[in-house]
Amino acid sequence: MKKVMVTGCLGQIGSELVAKLRELNGPDSVIATDIRRPIDNPTVQSGPFEELDVNDYDHMLQIAKDNNVDTLIHLAALLSAVAEKKPQLAWNLNMGGLVNALEVARELNLKFFTPSSIGSFGPNTPKDNTPQDTLQRPTTMYGVTKVSGELLCDYYHTKFGVDTRGVRFPGLISYKTLPGGGTTDYAVDIYYEALKKGSYESFIKEGTYMDMMYMPDAIDAVIKLMNADPDKLVHRNAFNITAMSFEPEDIKKSIQKVMPEFDMTYDVDPMRQTIADSWPNSIDPTCAKEEWGFSPNYDLDAMTRDMLDKLKDRVEQG
Ligand code: VAH
């Protein structure tokens, strides 16, 4: 990955992945793209940036050619809760953008990454220790685009020889960007509210287990997978990865170890609860560990300590 083009670079994953790649390989090693150009944004200011609508194939191809990239990391997509409110827009953006990105990768022989999600599983998937290869009948538009994307990426590898790779991300927790319309966002919101108010009202109900991971582990996983020996990859699109599985009461107790007075109540959002109930309780990351050495570092308490430490200054500044 000497010269990487990233779509959706202003999102939760993109903003941190671009920063890490630029830290490792230099500011000019990444051409960051997104549909808008917020001039005061660190991702825009820290290196090459282009405005790009991923539904504009010709423009995407031109940017990749002009910057002589060797890798395309395609992140632009609507997340689960927003996608459920705007399913047609979600299909057009998530699938239209992906087809364009895969075509650019095929045309220019680029290495390719796009994420899937635990959202690619559905209510009749085995819920505990969900296998790498199993039934995938998601009941959300987000999940339909994710499982379709997995199949399309495998097709482009088998049919056209494109070096496509992906992971099924769990819920990702980070402090550098605000949550972007996902179902697992409660596990991000809770840290902000704990510092602002000392309490949180969860929109996901007690006892709802979901896989989660701290963003530094997610970024390391993408880079490790993209640098992995292709001959060792039995699977490609997309690997189960996870660092932990927890429910709202677990994260409450973890925060209380740092902030004993923290309290949590519930006001369940029926739509996001329905989405969460259709996803696994925990997935099995064995294939990722065996095929490319996936190895997360943060557990729930380590993540909590770091999140509260990093967020406290920002919350105090308002
Ligand atoms: C969402 N954060 O909630 C994303 C992710 C597994 C969840 O795909 O939509």
From TrEMBL:
Record-level GO BP terms: L-threonine catabolic process
A GO MF term: L-threonine 3-dehydrogenase activity
UniProt-listed SUPFAM superfamilies: NAD(P)-binding Rossmann-fold domains
Pfam families linked to this entry: Epimerase
Coiled coil (UniProt feature): none
Residue ranges occupied by any NAD-dependent epimerase/dehydratase domain in the UniProt entry: 4-241
PANTHER family from the UniProt entry: L-THREONINE 3-DEHYDROGENASE (PTHR42687), L-THREONINE 3-DEHYDROGENASE, MITOCHONDRIAL (PTHR42687:SF1)
Family under the similarity heading: Belongs to the NAD(P)-dependent epimerase/dehydratase family.
Protein name in the entry: NAD-dependent nucleoside-diphosphate-sugar epimerase
Lineage of source species: Bacteria, Bacillati, Bacillota, Bacilli, Lactobacillales
